[in-house]
Amino acid sequence: MHELSIANSIVEIAAEHARQQGGSRVTGVTLRIGRLSCVHEDALRYSFDLVSEGTPLAGASLAVIEVPVRIWCPDCRSEVELPGIQRFACPACGHLSGDIRAGRELDIESIQIESDQIAADTPAQTQPEPS
After folding, report:
1. Topology of domain 2-68+103-130, per CATH?
2. Would the pTM of this model clear 0.90, i.e. be above it?
């Protein structure tokens, strides 16, 4: 289950980012996960909850943006989104293509950090931070 390792890396990265920003805890993490990344969202969520316990991410939300598979079609001369991952062919003209332009992503899109100052002034507010 490589999702456990991925979740552990996310927690380490987000906790370090919060520390560098002077934050006391992370309230949320948003990921971009491509359909070809071989990451199972349910397993990742379970692993994230497990490994975040006792860290600055305990109780943090995990949002996932699914990135569809996009290929380049040389006949149509455009990047097209595939309706599924069973056949890498342009949905408009049927041309087969292995030129994958999107769908393999596994990126941290954003990390929401609660700083000590914010926590003292207004509990439960978060500050979005770019990854």
Report:
1. hypothetical protein PF0899 fold (3.30.2320)
2. no
